[in-house]
């Protein structure tokens, strides 16, 4: 059967690809049908045949036949794909008469199909594709070869309404291509040219959009949709100096069919930020509000209307929230200063409040953005005005800023809204699922976490504006939980999440009074309510709140002690999630209040840490292993805070007593009979003990050396022994044995050993002591073992541990680098240089080790033999060619640092340049021009600019071309030009020459150099059209990161905006 299939496929392919005979349209239809409706091999072959045909340089000559005679819509789409391909990639090399022919043909086809209203509706997708093809032609032809395009399309539109409707869609697509998606698709110069052309000819389009007379609803709708796309770039006079705004409001806003798109247009206009059209903005606001009140009276229950509404009506509510949010954020002060508009402003805020109550997260997020903006602005205008509420204190406070007074009545309602709708914070693990059961949350809901952060920030600002009101709302609501009138899990949760979120926003005295009430009430509720689920919900809320108020706990020892004892109680509560949350809260409190646990507090006979260590057995007896590890880390932070070394050492001994007893007993047994290290239970115990040590060390830091020294040599012996067991098992049973539970447990012990050592080294503070006492036995145990093992049994942590040691010890370890390299370098490189996928962890860690040596022990690179150095360089080149982005980025960073390091070493530099410079250049160009590497463009630009600069400034004195010594700059210009011409033969000499010139002239200005590279990337695609929209992802990342850093700086100045656990350590305790 497969043989027959292959023959048929060959026959079909031969016939369809033979351009000397007429196209067999039925055969093509059959092949297309196979692709869409066939299966397996049949489908694959159809795909191959169609791909071959599409890639044939003359395939486009068949498109007219396909579109005219095929009865199959899918075949027609296929024909249009061929056409789109030739326009995007080969247009410039087609003879002019053929370009004109294709252009005429496409225009004719669009006119024919779109002039018939029934056809327009029936063949919507087909016409959509045709329109897109015309836009691709326009990007090549207009304005140079088709200067009359705008007047042509405007003229044609006057002949038929359905044709006009489609032309609107074409203009909309063109606008999007030029103004919204041009980046990375067309060069900067061309993009500017097209934008200028569109603005210059806009008056004709604008006249076409003046649709006062049309009775054709779909046409009006299409025109409004097109106008919406234009509004973000058209000259402002067309918006503010014509009747556009009033037409939108009076003629279209109150017509159900047009209200959504009209409101979107008004929102787009409202977002324009210019100062010279104040009156027009005021008119826009007042007229829109007048219409709104007729369409949606102020007493409407919008929440109910939304839940019962149709899609169209729900969209209107969402668009309304966008309009109000946009207008008020941009122009609120314009309206505020006009006394006659105060009432209208209050009505707008009233709408915002009503819409904020709608049970739809996306709409709530829009409203929240405005409330956040308003509260932050009112706070920043005068951060230190009194927070007491003038309405509550009975007298008018004169120091409340007038603008704040204007909004006060509204803000009461906003506070209530925030408290009753507060989202779930990340720390809360006990949740109610869709079935109404109380369970542990397993998947983090990032959407909910972000919503919480924004609501928290808003409520903090609102509390600063009037903490008395916030406290009143919360106290009343808590009272109603206790007396049962508002009791429900949801109500209790949102209230407690809100209480936890305002930590730091009240004065310390007020906070104390408020919190004492809250915690007493919650502890009372815990006693009063029966049933495991109720208790779990209340427990999670108590834990969340106490975790958020470290300032209060630090100042009130009795309370801190009560809270911690309560957490110990919850550690025995087996309800899902409660123990996890108790351990998480304990570690947070331990980090923020660490000193208080190691001091003797008033009224106590010993530090609380002693009590904990005396009872550690009973506290942790019901916890799971990973919870025990968290507990140990928490106690470690307390011990780390003890400054008296003798006391601290005594504490560490007592702290590690339990794990050490089990460890010692295993080691004693192993001394008598080493086979005990093959017993699954024993190996598992070893893994768990080491994990405890890892977490303890993370918290205690350098002083943990006393415990590490106690078990160090035994631990390394266990490492060697388990390693031999693993190797023996692999020899006996093959590599598959590494998947077995016992072998995996053995590897866990090896990994945790390495984690413990690297964790301690990275926190140690005496590099010489580490290098002399800890490193030699480690290298002895680990290196030869790594080299001898089969690849599948090599631990990637060996590489990361070496990297950490090099980073930490720097020059102290340079002498050991050759030994380390001998053992791990070549054997790891052979594991990862066959492809880009296998052994991902070894890959990442291998390059981290290279990076560490390159940064901290560079002289070691110069000391290794040349063959090994060449391997190092090859591996760096291999790294930056990776598709794994983290590896590629590391490779580029290593290369850049290496080049800078080499430049410092005068003796070695010149021979390095002579041997490797051109080679490196060639490889960098190969990734620059590879679209799967666009994310690295900034780094590519930095490296290339540095290399071209070296040559330009004469830093390379040796000849780069010893065979024919000429000036290096001239040689490099010719070398790069030839390199690019052979890779991209379709480029013109002038293009290449211009590009190479830029590489020299722009190498001092990295952003300009990068744009230069990007323009070149657009040009080389002219024969291989690919989507490069991701060329801009990286800028987006940087822009967002910068915005975030700016925001961070601003926020640090507002007390309470940061959750206490986000504040850097040195600023708290």
Automatic annotation (TrEMBL):
Pfam family name, one: IBN_N
GO biological process, one term: regulation of proteasomal ubiquitin-dependent protein catabolic process
Cellular-component GO terms for this entry: annulate lamellae; Cajal body; cytosol; kinetochore; nuclear membrane; nucleolus; ribonucleoprotein complex
Cellular compartments annotated: Nucleus, Cajal body
Gene Ontology MF term list: nuclear export signal receptor activity; small GTPase binding
Keyword annotations: mRNA transport, Nucleus, Protein transport, Transport
Classification via InterPro entries: ARM-like (IPR011989), ARM-type_fold (IPR016024), CRM1_repeat (IPR041123), Exp1_repeat_2 (IPR041235), Exportin-1/Importin-b-like (IPR013598), Importin-beta_N (IPR001494), XPO1/5 (IPR045065), XPO1_C_dom (IPR014877)
Domain Importin N-terminal: 46-112
Family stated for the protein in its record: Belongs to the exportin family.
PANTHER family on file: EXPORTIN 1/5, EXPORTIN-1
Name recorded for this polypeptide: Exportin-1
Organism phylogeny: Eukaryota, Metazoa, Chordata, Craniata, Vertebrata
Gene name as annotated: XPO1
